[in-house]
Write a structure and sequence with these properties.
With 195 residues, this protein is of the alpha+beta class. The protein is built from seven helices and six strands; from the N terminus they run E-E-H-H-H-H-E-E-H-H-E-E-H. It has a four-stranded antiparallel sheet with strand order 4-3-5-6. The protein has a two-stranded antiparallel sheet with strand order 1-2.
């Protein structure tokens, strides 16, 4: 049967195994998948660190599109030609372990903590906004005015100090005159930093 093809069983075409068995066969050595995962994690983390921090709840539609497109673009860089189940598991386990190691180091090492986290930034003082700091942190007057209202202040004149905290929230300290009339609020809203 010279012109017929075999219908049953895995087909081998150009050195590639097709059929149920190929999902269990690594197409890339495991060590390559591990190294690729670590390198891409480091590059992606560095890019996020350099371009700012946004809280998940503050993602705009454009931020979400950027993250999805970046993930889609980075996937082939991590897996290479591998599309096997064990390959995917190796990548996922590697990423989770690297993330756990980074979290562990952040807690244990002040140097790593300083390297990975944003510090607080003063964005307003003595009834005035510090416009260069607002621009540098990617905040606009709408964001900081909302923070004033959330802290029970009616105008910027009642603000003694405004700080953009490391977690993206804005802390407001009222002037002594405004302190007596303002109830302390515990609500914390996250503000975005530039991406």
């Amino acid at each position: 049967m010279h012109g017929e093809t075999q219908a049953a069983g895995p087909a081998i075409l150009a050195g590639e195994i097709r059929g149920p068995a190929h999902m269990w066969t690594l197409g890339t050595p495991a060590i390559d998948l591990i190294i690729r995962s670590i390198v891409i994690y480091a590059v992606f983390f560095t890019a996020l660190r350099l371009f700012g921090k946004r809280e998940i709840g503050q993602f705009t539609l454009f931020d979400l599109a950027l993250v999805l497109l970046a993930a889609n673009a980075l996937q082939p860089a991590i897996t290479g030609p591998d599309n096997s189940l064990p390959g995917g598991l190796i990548v996922v386990v590697t990423l989770f372990l690297v993330n756990r190691a980074v979290a562990f180091l952040r807690v244990r090492s002040p140097f790593v903590r300083r390297l990975l986290e944003f510090g607080p930034t003063v964005v307003g003082r003595d009834g005035a906004w510090l416009l260069p700091a607002l621009v540098r942190q990617g905040l606009d007057l709408i964001d900081v005015e909302a923070a004033l209202r959330e802290h029970g202040l009616d105008s910027v004149d009642e603000m003694k100090l405004a700080t953009l905290e490391a977690d993206g929230s804005i802390s407001i300290v009222a002037t002594d005159a405004a302190n007596g009339a303002v109830a302390v609020t515990r609500r914390r809203r996250r503000y975005r930093r530039p991406l």
